[in-house]
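Technical annex B. To support the medicinal chemistry partners, we prepared a structural model of the target in complex with pyridoxal-5'-phosphate, based solely on the information shown next.
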Amino acid sequence: MNEPIRFFLPGPTYVPMDARQAMTKPLMGHRSPAFKDIYASLSERLPKVLRTAGDGMLATGSSTLIMEAAIVSLVRKDVLHLVCGAFSERWFAISKSLGREADKIEVPLGQAIDPETVRAALRRKKYEAVALVHNETATGVMNPLQEIARVIREESDALILVDTVSSLAGAPVETDAWQLDLVLAGVQKAIAAPPGLTIFALSERAYERAQSVPHRGFYTDLVRYRDKHREGGVITTPAISLCFALDVQLDRILGEGLEARWERHRRLQEKTAAWAASRGIEYATAADCRSWTVSCLKPPAGVAATDLTAAMRKRGFTLGGGYDAWKSSTFRIGHMGEVRPGDLDVLFAEIEEVVACTAS
Ligand SMILES: Cc1ncc(COP(=O)(O)O)c(C=O)c1O
């Protein structure tokens, strides 16, 4: 893996050459013994990344599929959403569109959810589930998931549904230890595989509750996924080529060591923060909740975020632009997946040149 990384989107992220090449392997039937072997091998390693003794499952579809499936399969009526940006707002909108009685706790952009506000909401009303985004990619906020989960467990028997799309494999997520009921993540972020697959864990009690929820559809039926998984396969024709790429990346992740990978991401965040501070570049995100995988920054005075990202693109570097309400006022550096400190050194030098050219 010697290619220099010039691609710093907060997802999809840079995918190593061997994972890309794996996708050119000849196809096989998805019910064939050959694919069953591949699926068994993925199933053996996915729980290690998801940190569960239970099942590590796979769906063909982007993360939004399992966000929707979670509501369809696990919520009859009342669900509480913790909203701190575009993706947590999307999950709330999904619940509303499915006709659920969805409430939300919302914090200003750039801030994290306070566990105590969750406690207060759970004392006011009984919910079947609480849904939250661990790492809000749009604003670079990482929520205190462990503390929030603890409060939910202390106050209720609500299922804990967690989008770890841009944190899994890049920051600690402990499915079993934190008693999370559904943990989902796309593979195109810190796992650094091509987009198109979502991996997820489902607790036993969530599986049991799902069985009593009517109208779970087909593609959104988490019971069906679990049952098929236990038979050693998937519910429909999977994106087989993407499974080949994921296979390579799971080996890479477990070869590095999951905890070592978390630590590398923490250091990338630290490095980005130190560089930004030294150049007078401010974070848009509050200091106590900065994500380990994506930094959301305000460009230096006199430089428009959109000009910065455009100039960097001309130089062959891809940055994330601002998202939604922060579109023109921020830019994002995705430091996740296979990004190494040396890649950031090159990136930072380039940004400095662009800023110097723009300012002069
Ligand atoms: C935190 C988070 N949740 C959900 C999504 C939606 O993922 P997808 O586009 O793969 O459905 C994204 C996409 O970037 C995300 O960052």
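Notes passed to the chemistry partners:
The two ends are 38 Å apart (CA to CA).
Residues 11, 62-64, 87, 133, 137, 163, 165-166, 186 surround pyridoxal-5'-phosphate (CB under 6 Å).
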